[in-house]
Each structure stands twice: as C-alpha cells, then as structure tokens.
Design goal:
The protein is an alpha+beta fold. It has 5 domains: 2-145, no CATH class; 180-275, Immunoglobulin-like, CATH 2.60.40; 281-393, Immunoglobulin-like; 411-556, no CATH class; 601-676. The protein is 41% helix and 17% strand. Strands 3, 5, 6, 9, 10 and 11 form a 6-stranded mixed sheet that branches. The two termini are 84 Å apart.
Length: 706
C-alpha cells in the first residue's frame, strides 16, 4: 500500500508540472502575439517572426522556472495543508517499510485510504493556468487594435510622401466615357510647398491649393469637341495636340467638381479637392497667460513655444510692450525680440525657447510686460498668439497705506497685519548677522506663530471654527438611519441644513471671493512652514503673495450704489377725486408676424419625394422641380466639400433624368440631405416623475413646515 501512496504523490507532482508548463506556454503565446503585432504594424513582419518570438520566450521561461526539478516534498506539504485528515503524515509514503517505526506503520495504514481518495485535479494547481488562458484570450483584442492602426499609419505615410510618378491615392474604380482610352493628369504643386510634381491616371484630383493641373486624354475615336465643364459653369476646351491626344492646363484655387464632355456626351462628376494651406499654429507652453513675479523671485520669464505648419515656417518673433506708470502718466514701449533660431531650413515644426531678462527691458517693480508671438509660413500667412501678461510686483505699493484711509472698508483691523509680518521678517533678515542663532530661531518661530494666528482669523470667515475641526458631524452620520429617530425632524434638519461652521457650506462670500480666500490661506500655510523651519528669506515670497491677494480682495469689496429717485407726473387739481375714467382705455397691441422663408424647405420636401420614389415613379412636374431645387443646394455644397456631397449630386441627377431610382441612390441622397439639415430644436416638456412619485420631495417639504 505504501507503493500505491507513493505513486499517488508522483501523479500529483506530474499533474502540477503539466499545469505550470501549459501556463507558461499560454503566457509566452500571448506575449509573442503582442510583440508580433508591433512588428507587423511598424516593420510589416511575417507570422514566422511571431513563432520565433514564442519559442524564445517559452524557452527563456523554462530556463528560469525549471518546473521539472520540483520534488515531491512540496506536494506532501500541500497535501498536509489542504487535507487535515492526513494529520501531516503524507510524507510517510515516501519512506521505505524497513525505516518505519511501529507507530509510523500504524499511521501509514490509517492515511492510505484518505490519500487514495485525493483527486488528481487540484484548483490550486490550475491557478496560473487559468490566468494564462485568460491573458491569452484577452491579448487578441490589443493585437487587433495595434494592427488596425497600421492602416492609419500607412495612409499618413502616403499623404506625406511625394512620389515623382505613378501616384495612385484613389483606388476606387471610376466610370469613364468609352471614348477615352487613357488619361494622364500631372499635378505641379506651388513652389512654397517644396513638393515635386506627380502624375496619376484618375480623374479624381486631390492637389495643393494653387497647383497647376495638366490634363492629357487619349481617345480611341475622332472627336470634334472635347472640353471640361466645372461646377461654376466654366468650360475649358482641350487642345488637339496629336491625332488622338487632347491637353489642357489650369490652376485650381478651391475645391469643386467637373465633367468631361466629348461631342455632347457627359461623363460622371469627378471630385476636384484643393488642399488648403493652413496658417501656422502657435502653442505657448510657458509661462501662464497671467504671471506674477513676487518679491524674492528671479526677474525673468522663460518662453517656450511650439510652432507647426503644413509646409514650413519662414520666421517667428516675440513682440513685447512694457507698461510703466499708472493712470494718465502710463507709458508704453514696444520692442521686437528674435528667438535666435535660423529658419533657413523652413521645417514644419519648431520648438523654440527664449528667456527674457526683465531688467534688460528697463522694467522696474510695478511695471507690466505684454507680449505675443507671431509666426509666418512659406506662403506669407501670419498668425499671432494671445497676449500674455507678466507683472513685476511692487513691494512698496503693497506696504503702502494708500486706499485704506478712504472709501468703504468692510474688513476688521487684523486684516492688515500681514504687512507687519512682512516688515518683521525683513527686519529679522537684516539683524541676522548681529544676533545669535538661538535668538534668530526664536524670533522666526514667533513670526510663524503670528502667521498661524492670522491664518486662523481668516479661517473663521470660511467657516473654520477650529483648526482641529476637520470632519464635523462624523459621529452623527448614522443618526438619521437610527429607528429611534424616525419622524424626528430636528435630527434630519441637523444633518442636511446649512451651517456656518462648515467650511464647504459657508455662504459669507461668493465662490470667487471664497476661492481667493482659500488661496490666501494656502500662502499663509507655506509662509508659516518656512518660518517654523527658521527660513524667513524663503517665507517672504509667500507673505508678499498673500498680501497681494488680500489687497485684491479689499478692492473687490468696494461697491458703488448710484442715487435714484422717482419723479411723479404733476397732478391736475381740477380732476382730483372726480372719478372720471373716460380717458383710461384698455391697451390693444396688434402685430402681424410674417413667417420667414425656410432655406431648407426644398431639402425637406425633397425627402418626401424620395420616399415616394421607393414605390413609384415621378409623375408630376412639381416633384421634379422640388428635386431640382434640392440639387442646386447640394451642388453648392459639393463645390466646397466634394468628398462629402459629390456622390449625392451624381445620384440625384440620375434620378431627375430617369424619373426613377433604386434604394441605394435614394439612401445616398437622403444621407446627404440629412447632413445639411440643422439639428431640430428641443421643445419644452414636463419633467418625468421619479420612481417614488415625488414622495421623498414631499417628505422633506413637510419636514420644513414643522
């Protein structure tokens, strides 16, 4: 029987090793699929590389884990842990019968039946295998997403590429006249694009704005007149260069469509897409649009700009304006600053940096710098950014008492004590060399204590009654749900009513003022921290910023109410108290409102005609006229966006000429019309009742009346 138990342990060991090897195989297959998807997307690698990646990863995992070297002792330890009936004696089956004592033999006989009933499939053995299978099943989703990007990347590469000949961007089959045996169209982009000429054999043209297009048609019959008809009605005659070749040349400046006319036979509508040259795009990464340089900070500003353009940037400059003084004595000085970068290569993207030293612009405390960036591309198109403001803080103005001796001051006296903290901090820095280190630290700590008291005073205006009141009403969270308080309105009101000692619910100020007060408290926190660390020179910038925020709050608190009075009309004493109401009549307001012309009426009516065409032919001239009006509007839009509306124009012309249509043509036209129609306005409607039919709202309303 001991031999049978030893075989059972060996079988469990083999089953565990098999599960781990299969788990490694699934993990390796998933990782190999992910690596191959990247390789296929970027380098177009074949599936053989994926198999090689699987073999390498799987072999590397086997060398690290070496599952086959696992012995039977971990298996017996697992059995002892999971099956308490074995009484931690499963390792007895591994010993020889001659080495067993009498008690061990008796225990072995007791556990052999229990060990024989242990199943070979254990859930703990298959844990890694389940994870591996799940990882392997989820990985194809990521691989599909990665390989799907391959089409977008290839399209982007084709768009940026400039092949000399044989450019075939449009692979959609075109319907051409049977008289045309071959077509060759040469596109010559403008010089500023730095793109070479290219040729194609399709009538659908996609070219840069301002490109010169040369058409060359080869016919298999003799033709008297070959011309191109454009969407604006212009006709261009093709010259007969040889016996069967016809050529014409034209420069395009906007999108549209055209047709080929050979002796009165018209072709389909062909798209003529002009790629517009967009102006440069300017993105200022730093600084912020409104920047304050407080006392103690370096008086300079670093400008980081990213410039992008379709075909290249020729130059870029920074235009600055320094404002000095105030009121009627303000003076402005403009200056043009170069980035110091050469634009001779005319790249489509530039990352520019420029650090402006404010004293070099003769800026003093209290002055402001206004600047913007202007860029120009190869096509002489200019773009300028928004105006950015850099203010150099004037500490003397902050410490002055101007504005505090007049006007309305709704702040208490201690709102101005931040100035005293700044003055004491500066005096402490001046006395550093003349006092001992202990005295310096003591005075700095005392200033930190003063800053704390000031911060706590400000906190009262935001509802912070105490510094330790972080989570009020925490003990009353479950008071409403207590059955003993059912019907107790005081408990409900205590939880949901607005209380002034809650910092989030304090309603002394509007949100903007409250946000600025919170920012002031934050600066005071930072100043107090540095003062506690005996670093008053580091605390000064935070103190100045807190003072500046306070001064802004003081100005926001000033209000002006204009004097108003009511001047009644004079009374006629002879008519007073007579009761004569003959001159008082009921006012009548009569106004005729004519409905305006609906510019989309023809398109809306055309949809109704198209729906009738699904079942019968056009029988009236009114329906044909409706479709013709819709065709005019679609043609106007197709001239600007041929890639969206040109198929609908072609389908609608066929419907008008034949008087019937199939479902595909009707669907194409209806989709284009729906794209043109504006979105419908939402009409007012009654709100839907909640699932409780408004009982909860009525409950709280009745509580408020008690």
């Amino acid at each position: 029987m001991a031999e049978q138990g030893r075989n059972k342990v060996d079988q469990l060991r083999q089953r565990y090793i098999q599960y781990q090897l299969l788990a490694d195989a699934f993990f390796a297959a998933a990782l190999a699929a992910l690596i191959w998807s990247f390789g296929y997307t970027i380098y177009n690698l074949s599936w053989i590389w994926g198999m090689l990646a699987f073999l390498v990863i799987y072999g590397f995992s086997l060398l690290l884990s070496r599952w086959w070297k696992i012995g039977v002792k971990p298996i017996t330890a697992f059995l002892n842990l999971k099956y308490p009936d074995l009484e931690e004696s499963s390792e007895l089956v591994l010993k020889e019968s001659s080495d067993l004592t009498l008690l061990e033999k008796m225990q072995l006989v007791r556990i052999e039946d229990i060990l024989d009933a242990v199943p070979l499939s254990q859930k703990q053995f298959a844990y890694r295998l389940r994870l591996g299978i799940l990882f392997f099943l989820v990985m194809p989703i990521f691989c599909w997403e990665i390989t799907w990007l391959r089409n977008d990347w290839r399209i982007e590469r084709l768009r940026q590429a400039t092949p000399l000949t044989g450019a075939k961007k449009n692979n959609i089959a075109e319907k051409i006249l049977p008289q045309v045996s071959a077509v060759s169209i040469k596109i010559s982009p403008p010089a500023y694009t730095h793109k070479a000429s290219r040729e194609q054999d399709k009538f659908t043209i996609e070219a840069e704005e301002g490109s010169t297009i040369n058409w060359k048609l080869s016919l298999n019959v003799q033709a008297k007149r070959v011309e191109l008809i454009f969407n604006n009605g212009e006709k261009m005659l093709l010259k007969n260069t040889t016996e069967s070749d016809y050529e014409a040349q034209r420069s395009i400046s906007k999108s549209g469509f055209y047709q080929v006319n050979i002796d009165g036979k018209l072709s389909d509508l062909y798209q003529l897409q002009a790629i517009r040259d967009n102006p440069p795009v300017i993105h200022i990464k730093s600084p912020q649009q409104y920047t304050y340089i407080d006392a103690g900070e370096a008086p300079r500003v670093a400008i980081n700009v990213a410039l992008d353009d379709d075909y290249g940037i020729s130059n870029a400059f920074i235009y600055t304006t320094v404002a000095k003084g105030s009121g009627e004595a303000v003076k402005f000085k403009e200056q043009k600053i170069d980035f110091g970068t050469s634009f001779s290569t005319q790249n489509p993207h530039y990352d520019l940096q420029k650090t402006i030293n404010l004293p070099s612009l003769n800026m003093e405390p209290g002055d402001e710098l206004y600047f913007y960036v202007q860029a120009q591309d190869n096509h002489n198109q200019q773009t300028r950014s928004d105006v950015y403001i850099v203010s150099l803080q004037d500490t003397a103005q902050l410490l002055s008492m101007d504005g505090l001796l007049s006007g309305v001051n709704v702040k208490p006296e201690f709102f101005r004590s931040e100035r005293q903290i700044i003055l004491d901090s500066e005096k402490l820095l001046r006395d550093r060399d003349s006092i001992s280190k202990e005295a310096f630290n003591t005075r700095s700590n005392e200033l930190g204590n003063d800053q704390k008291l000031l911060r706590l005073r400000y906190g009262k205006f935001l509802g912070e009654e105490a510094e330790s009141d972080i989570n009020p009403k925490e003990e009353q969270e479950d008071a409403v749900s207590d059955p003993k308080n059912f019907g107790n309105a005081a408990v409900v009101l205590d939880k949901y009513s607005d209380k002034h000692d809650n910092a989030e619910d304090a309603q002394f100020f509007d949100p903007a003022i409250k946000a600025q007060l919170k920012a002031t408290l934050t600066e005071m926190w930072k100043a107090e921290l540095q003062l506690r660390l005996y670093k008053p020179e580091v605390a000064l910038p935070f103190e100045y910023k807190a003072l500046r925020l306070l001064k802004d709050l003081q100005q926001k608190s000033r209000v002006y109410v204009a004097k108003t009075a009511y001047n009644p009309a004079p009374l006629k004493m002879e008519k007073r108290l007579t009761g004569d109401l003959s001159k008082i009549i009921q006012p009548v307001d009569h106004q005729t409102i004519k409905p305006g012309d609906d510019e989309y009426g023809a398109l809306k009516n055309a949809i109704g005609v198209l729906e009738l065409l699904r079942y019968e032919k056009i029988n009236s001239n009114a329906d044909i006229h409706t479709l013709q009006l819709a065709n005019q509007q679609l043609s106007e839009r197709a001239s600007a966006q041929p890639e969206l509306y040109l198929p609908a124009v072609s389908a609608l012309r066929k419907i008008i000429s034949s008087g019937k249509a199939n479902r595909n043509e009707i669907s194409v036209v209806e989709k284009a019309i729906q794209r043109l129609l504006p979105a419908g306005k939402l009409l007012p409607s009654a709100p839907q009742n909640a699932a409780d039919m408004g009982l909860s709202s009525g409950y709280y309303k009745n509580l408020g009346n008690k």
